[in-house]
Write a structure and sequence with these properties.
Layout: H1 3-12, E1 19-22, E2 40-53, H2 56-63, H3 66-86, E3 90-95, E4 98-103, H4 108-134, H5 136-141, E5 147-163, E6 166-172, H6 174-183, E7 192-195, H7 196-199, E8 217-224, E9 227-234
Amino acid sequence: MTLKDDIDGAVEDLTKVWSTTTWGATRLEVPDPNDMGYSDGKKISATFLYSDMADSSGLVAAANDPEVVASVISSYLKACVRAIRNENGHIRSFDGDRVMGVFSGASKATRAARAALRLNYAVTNMLDPAIQAAFPSLKEAGWHLRHASGIASSDTLMVRAGIRNNSDLVSIGVGPNLAAKLSDERDGDYRTLIGAGTHKDLDQALYTDSKGAPVWLGPYDFKMGGGTYSYYKSRHHIEVK
């Protein structure tokens, strides 16, 4: 087959019939692309958590060593994965130095928020001090590991996109889009940003800290795709034990 034949096949996909089913609202697991065909769709009510490392270009310049950069990014992504899985979240995408976790079932908003707040503790109190000690070039350059996590919830359509041996799960909905955009925000020590819909679904214990101070500030307005969405932000963390 020629490339034209292949592209013609992609054009024909525009009118294909999707076999779409609803994912059970109580299920803790989420759709797995390996269990889906290329015409399958899963409608799921989920909370999405994107965590994104800040200033990776600054890391490259400060390290001047690709293996140091690889070690830092690898350690960060591993911490993200551990924090997400610890709360029964599922990893469904990597994009450079960013990872997406999906939470389904009971207390999905609370579990996603706890994962993000624990990750904030891990980055600030565990990973960055270790990085400064291990790599003098980064310490001398003043580069510190920083990140942001965006969280949002919505009804979402998940489909398998791509071709055989080169495919991924695509999440279509406001939740994944807003979570990704919020993770791009850089607002000082406010490392966790959460959509208003997710914020209202949190367990009561996550609204205030041990001293009774509010964990979240807001709401604030965020413009995306011609619409305006409300979100809250936090500089708090949950200690990793």
